[in-house]
Amino acid sequence: MRFAIPLLVLAVLIGFFAVGLNRDPRTLPSPLIGKAAPAFELPVLEFPKKDGAPPLLTNADFVGKPILVNFFASWCAGCQVEHPFLMRLAQSGQVQIVGVDYKDADADVRQWLGVRGNPYAPILVDLDGRTGIDWGVYGVPETFVVDARGTILHKHIGAMTPEAWEKDIKPLLVKP
Amino acid sequence: MSATRPPNRLFRLFAPRASALLLIALCALSPLRASAQVTTVKPEIPLTAAQEKQLEVLLPDLRCLVCQNESLAESRAPLALDLKYEVRNLVAQGKSDAEIKQYLTARYGDFVLFRPPFDPRTWLLWLGPIGLVIIGLLALLWNVRQSRKPKATTTPTVDPAALRKLLDE
């Protein structure tokens, strides 16, 4: 009986630690989940390069079917890690992946995609990173799941993995 | 094995240098391989003295999301510099501190604030320590009271007959 209270306190502490220490402080919850995707107007990066000014696309151009919006860059290590999986995903035709090239030189990303292949349709260019800020991006790669009406359903932080795709993202896209 | 001659003197002499050379060579090569983050040149935003003051007070309260324990005021991370620029821009537009914090939390959540707001989700955070102190004080008070109370001495039940018998002996 003497030890009942200390033991109880210990149990509560263990509970807190069990939850707290298993959380990754680097993955921050996005306040944008369930909200309309922030407005953007970005030039397309044509791959391969074409003459003339590239067209500008906005949210309205992507309404009608769910998409993945993948913020990436040729200078980003995690993007190299997830790239083969994105290639397989794009080739499987399960979802359209829109790439947002974040604070990157066009020449660099063209070379990067030239070597590795291009999973994106299309690639948008966020040269100064302002669209990234509007979307709450704090480190590439980050991937948003946007439904057919333009609502953000989910955000995946860090390199995309087959597990994350199967567990967190695929079920969201199957829903009508 | 080679007790008579110092083992691998040449190796010992050159190994550190060789690895240093290798490191230098790798460093020298790496810019050719990896591309770097682009920093766009943005126009300077002039501020009035009052606005500079507002920015100076506000920035230490905002968290850098990349280097999480630094504030925007201290951080040199590219994203922090971008956010600092955006905040400066908002200050120049005459936005209040509350409006600027709203701008940031709408994108990055409350985590961007070093002082989280007082709302139902954070009641435990804000009130927890006070609650613990109160519980501690109550426990202390209870303990002191307990020790001040005269010890309840248990009077042993005495069988008078047995006692008499004992005394008689």
Tell me, what's the shape of chain B?
A: elongated
Q: Could you say what the CATH architecture of chain A is?
A: 3-Layer(aba) Sandwich
CATH superfamily of one domain in chain B: Cytochrome C biogenesis protein
| Straight-line distance between termini of chain A | 57 Å
The CATH class of chain A turns out to be Alpha Beta
Main beta sheet of chain A: 5 strands, mixed
Provide a quick synopsis of the model.
The complex is a heterodimer of chains A (176) and B (169). By secondary structure, chain A is of the alpha/beta class. Chain A is built from 5 helices and 7 strands.
Short descriptors:
heterodimer; A: 176 residues; Glutaredoxin; two-stranded antiparallel sheet; B: mainly alpha; Helicase, Ruva Protein, domain 3; 6 helices; disordered N terminus
Explain the overall architecture.
The complex is a heterodimer of chains A (176) and B (169). Chain A is an alpha/beta fold. Chain A is built from 5 helices and 7 strands, in the order H-E-E-E-H-E-H-E-H-E-E-H. Chain A has one domain: Glutaredoxin (3-Layer(aba) Sandwich). Helix content of chain A is 35%, strand content 19%. In chain A, strands 5-4-3-6-7 form a 5-stranded mixed sheet. Chain B has 169 residues and is mainly α. Chain B has a domain at 49-112: Orthogonal Bundle (Helicase, Ruva Protein, domain 3). In chain B, 12% of the residues are buried. The model of chain B is unreliable at 1-6 (pLDDT under 50).
